[in-house]
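Reading a protein record of the kind used here takes little practice once its layout is understood. An example of such a record is reproduced below.
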Amino acid sequence: MKKIMKNTIAIALAVILVAGCFIAAGDPTAYAASKWNPKKTFKGPIKPAPVVTEPVAPAPTEPVAPAPTEPVAPAPTEPVAPAPTEPVAPAPTEPVEEPVTAPVVTEPVPPVTPTPEAIVLPAAKNYLYVAPTGSDSNNGSAEAPFRTIQKAANVAKAGDAVLIREGTYKEKVKPANSGNATDGHILFTNYNGEVVTIDGTGISVAKGTALFDVAYRSYIKVEGLRIINSSWTGFGSPYASPGSTRNIIIRNCFISNTQSSGINLSYAKDILIDGNTIQYANTLPASQGGSDEALTVGATDGFVISNNYLSNMGKEGIDAKGGANNGKIFGNVIEAPPIMGIYIDAFHASQSNIEIYNNTINNAVHNGIVLAIEYNGTLSDINIHHNTINKAKRGISITTYGSSPYVMNNIIIDQNTMVGTTICGLDLSNDQAKNVTITKNYFGGTSTSIPIYNNGGYIPANGFVIDGNKLNRVVTGHPTGTNYSLI
């Protein structure tokens, strides 16, 4: 600033001198009078210098520490609760500011009423329709359905599908024809998930037959039907000739209140019984002529019994008997069987190659799973593993019923769980059983239960292997095997 003032003064003096020269040129006396005398005031007619208009570095624009840019806590960056980041409804996350994520796009779509075009029909060569409003004089089309299932069963051929509309049909059904390997099964099913009931009330179903009878037929498939109130069997071929009933599938059906079996596929070959519910089977007591079990396969070669639910039966739950070979029984749930849950009985025949696994048996009055020979048969290659038995007198039993001989061979009892047994976890009663392997089972019985009960059937020389089991206790005189542990 001092430098600027010095410059300003110098310029002003220069202007005065120049002005003096102009005056002297015009008036000699003025020049003489203009000689500077510090004691004498100058009175000549001198014009004022244009100091005011000189562009000399104005003070207001002096770049000396300008206040606006001084780095002393500038307001815009002061960390004092800035509004944009206050936790009170921040603007960036308010729904009104984010229309892209509006909940409209995630709202559930209202259900659409199915239309005929949306219905997926099972694959078939031809479709035959049955409805309570139909007539057996119709042609069986969707527009002109039959009135009875039996009418469709008389007409259907290999590869056809009988689609049954909702309603109750009081009739007995027996297909007139069979399917075949080339054209496929004849299918009987409920249309589009509708409730279809075959009711045998007041209909005579002779002993050895079924309300829905497939004896001597092949490649028949039945799905999604309710079969109730039969005076003998609900579905099947109880007493056909050996091997005369083949390639039968019954799946996802509900069967209730049958005096004999809910399902009985005997003397058959290559059958599948899957996902059915069977209740109140065997309602006719044995003393009055009742027979068989809730779900029976007898003298059948090649069978799968899977994922069925059985309850309130009058006798055994599932029975593979009388020469039933090459089968699997798995994923079934059996509630409160009054005698036993699963029964493998060779009876008078040779029976082999059966795998029993992942089944659950609850509250059996007597036994969970039983292997037996009632009348001089043989039983071999039976694998019982990963089953659960909750409460029974005996969990698993290798036993005898009837007269000797009752030869058993190659029996595996592996990784089963038995809880709440009151007599024993495993009953060894057959002294003719050989090559029996008992491994990694959980015997969690009550305080009175013997884990592995030697009831005359444990003969070490017959080739027993007992290893790695978990026992609820050790009882003198009864085998524990090697590497056991206590629960």
